[in-house]
Each structure stands twice: as C-alpha cells, then as structure tokens.
Write a structure and sequence with these properties.
14 helices, five-stranded antiparallel beta sheet, alpha/beta, about 450 residues, globular
C-alpha cells in the first residue's frame, strides 16, 4: 500500500517543480516582452512621422489643363518658400498625385494619398468636378483635413459642405461678380449667347454671370455646351447666331485657345466676354491669329494682372524670379494653390503641426483664420469658403505687345452668394445646363 503512495508523492513533487519552473519562465518572458515597448517609446521622436509633415497634392498632369497644373505647383512652391519649407523643426514633404481633371482620377488620387501614403492633409484638386469628388471623399475621412486647390465648382462648399473641406480661394460664381452688370450697362451688350464646357465649373461661371446680366435686363439667346477638353469647334462655330451683341466664352486652357483660333479663322465677328480662365495668362501668354481678337474683352477674376497693390506686385515679382519658364504673370491656378497652401501653413504654425484628436485644433485654426493675401484680405464663411476681393478686368496690350488683364474695378468682400441672403440665393436652384434662365 505504501508504494503507490510514494509513487503519487513523487508525481506531486514533480508537478510542483514543473509549476515553479513554468512560473519563473513566464515571469522572465514577461520581463522580456516589456522591453520592446520601452524601446519603441524611446525611438518614436526620431522617426520620420515625428520629423516631417506630409502634404498630399492633387493637380492636373494631363489633358487640356496640364499646363495649369504645373502653374498650380508654382503657386504652392511660393507659399512653401515663405515658410522655409518647415513648420517649427518639422520639414514639409509633398506627396504628389497627378490627374486628368476628371472626378474619377481625383477619387483615385485622393484615396491613394490618404489610405496608402498616409498623408497628414490634402491640398487640391484643380478642376471643378474634381473638387466635388474630393469633397465627397472628405466626408468618409473625418479625421483628415482637405484644403482646396483651385477647383471652383460652387457646390463643393455651398450645398451640403463637408466639415473638413476648406476653400480659401474662390468658386466660379464669385469670380464673375460685377461682369454681368458691367457688360450690360457699360458695353451695351443686351443679347448674347454662351459657349462653355459641360461640367460644374462652367455651370458656376455661366450661372454667376447670368444672375447679374439677366437681373439688369439682358437676354441669353442660346447656350452651347461642349465636352471638357474639346479641341474641334467646327460644329459649333457655324451655329452661333449673328444677331447677337457678344459671346460669353467659358473654356479653359487649350480648349480656349482652340476655339479662339477657330472662331477668328472663320471670320467670327461677335465681341467676346471672357470667363475667368478663358483670358487668363495661360491663354494670353500665347501668340496666334487670335492675338488681336481678344483685345478689349471684358472678364472678371480673383486676380488682375496689373493690380498696383504692393502685395500683388511683390507676388508677381517673386513668381517671375523663381519661375522664369512660367507664364508672363501668375495664373488663377497659381494664385489659388498659393493662398490655399499659405492658409494650410498658417494654420499648422498656429497649432505647431498638431494633428491629434482628429486634427481638431488644426480644423479650428483654419475655420477662424484671417490673413492678407496678394489680392487682399481672406476670411471664411460658415461653409468654410473664402470671402474675397474680385477684380473686373479688360484685356489690354503692353508697349512690348504682350497681353494682360487691365484692372477696371475692385469689388470687395464678395461672398459665394454675391451678396444675396443665402436662403434667397439657394432658392435660385443649382446652376447647370438649363438653370438659370433670363425668363
């Protein structure tokens, strides 16, 4: 009977020893497991994430607005240079994604920047429909900040705005402030047609122009819409009525150049009214048969080439010195990317690059930001869209023969609703192919 007991005792003794050994082993493993955490905590401040701020950039690199995309980057570089490329001790790193100005490519670009490149914020895009796409994506990423580039589709901020999407530049409606009234009252244009590309930015430009023009008593005989990037206008030009006072042309980049050349070559006689980008430096800086044809064309924009404000003069000089290969004067895209990038950097400086708690401090800094730009003071409305000066211009010629936009009048503090109460403006409906009318 005693032998089995001794065997059991030996088994218990062995089990006890095993438990002790396992306990000691686990304790040792626990000590070792704690070491990597301590090392990680020590090393973290020297990682790239702690020494840089990654800004994702969306701009056009192909299609009819590719040259404008390059000028947009020039504007960004001017803003970065003012801050020495740093916020405190953290360098600014740009992660760039090119597009063709379509909403599909903009969606792909912004998703890559946020979800794969893990940028801290995004600046861009350039074109109208792209802005709507980025605004929609911003809603799915509430902890990130998205700041516009030069996209000017009005509804990127006016209707159903995303709380983390900011636009310190102008929309297409704002840019037309004063133009409709001016051509009716001063140029005596009473009956016109419009020619524009068929997407959100031209909808905003035509709608903004007609809001004033129709109210003054003007009539729009016909609207012509062409696909974005159109180069052949042979089907349009013969259809333009001859019993009109002028044509409002809202085309961008190479599309504008192609129409102006083709209309001139076919003997078109109607005076022109220029959309903001139709007679921007991207077009005026070129030479061609249409050169004399655009002289005297009225237009309006957030910039004026011969603005004598010292801040603008300095901005132009900095641009020409840094980019001798650029346009004769900064384009609206260069200006827009500049002011949006500067706003981002001013906001980052205020919060010392703090992106914690879903970038909350950074968002608050941007929402309350007010600063002086080369074109006057900038502040945001409740939808996080800029309230700015707009410039009424006419195309003129310098003694050296180069074309530029000559300032006629400054219209201060223009809002998205052109000074109308927001409810009244929204009551006009969404601007598109068939709205507004002069009925």
């Amino acid at each position: 009977m005693s032998q089995p007991f001794r065997s059991t005792a030996r088994s218990l003794s062995g089990l006890t020893l095993l438990v002790i050994l396992l306990t000691l082993s686990l304790a040792a493993c626990g000590d070792n497991a704690a070491q990597p955490a301590a090392v990680t905590t020590t090393v973290a401040p020297t990682t790239a994430a702690a020494t840089e701020i990654k800004i994702g950039v969306i701009y056009t690199t192909s299609g009819s607005t590719a040259s404008l995309g390059q000028d947009a980057l020039r504007g960004m570089e001017l803003a970065l240079a003012e801050f020495g490329g740093k916020i405190g001790d953290r360098k600014i790193t740009l992660v760039k994604e090119g597009t063709d100005a379509t909403s599909a490519m903009a969606r792909t670009a912004v998703r890559k920047l946020v979800e794969q490149d893990n940028v801290d914020l995004v600046i861009g895009p350039l074109s109208g429909d792209e802005g709507l796409a980025v605004r929609n994506y911003a809603r799915t990423q509430p902890n990130k900040v998205f700041i516009n580039g030069s996209s000017a589709a009005q509804d990127a901020t006016l209707r159903d705005p995303a709380p983390n999407f900011y636009r310190f530049s102008t929309d297409g409606v704002q840019r037309m402030a004063g133009l409709g009234s001016y051509v009716y009252q001063t140029k005596n244009y009473k009956r016109i047609v419009t020619l524009a590309e068929d997407y959100s930015y031209p909808y905003s430009q035509v709608g903004g122009f007609m809001t004033e023009f129709c109210k003054a008593g003007g009539k729009v005989a016909q609207k012509f819409w062409v696909p974005q990037g159109t180069s052949d206008f042979s089907a349009i030009v013969p259809s333009i009525p001859t019993d009109i006072d002028a044509i409002l042309v809202v085309l961008t980049g190479s599309s504008a150049v192609n129409f102006l050349k083709q209309y001139d070559l076919t003997g078109g006689k109607a005076p022109l009214i220029g959309g903001t980008s139709t007679v921007d430096q991207a077009v005026l800086g070129l030479k061609g048969s249409f050169y004399e044809r655009v002289l005297g064309t009225p237009t309006s924009s957030a910039i004026s080439d011969n603005n004598t404000d010292p801040a603008w003069v300095q901005f132009v000089q900095s641009y020409k010195t840094k980019f001798p290969e650029g346009f004769p004067s900064p384009s609206i895209q260069a200006h827009s990317y500049y002011v949006n990038t500067k706003a981002a950097l001013l906001g980052l400086k205020q919060v010392n690059g703090d992106f914690s708690n879903g970038s909350q401090k950074f968002k608050e800094a941007l929402s309350n930001l007010q600063f002086d730009s080369p074109t006057g003071p900038i502040k945001l409305d409740k939808n996080r869209n800029a309230i700015v000066n707009i410039y009424l211009n006419e195309v003129d010629k310098r003694p050296d023969g180069s074309l530029y936009t000559r300032l006629i009048k400054t219209i201060p503090n223009v809002s998205q609703t052109l000074g109308l109460p927001e409810a009244d403006f929204l009551g006009l409906g969404v601007f598109g192919r068939d709205n507004p009318t002069c009925a």
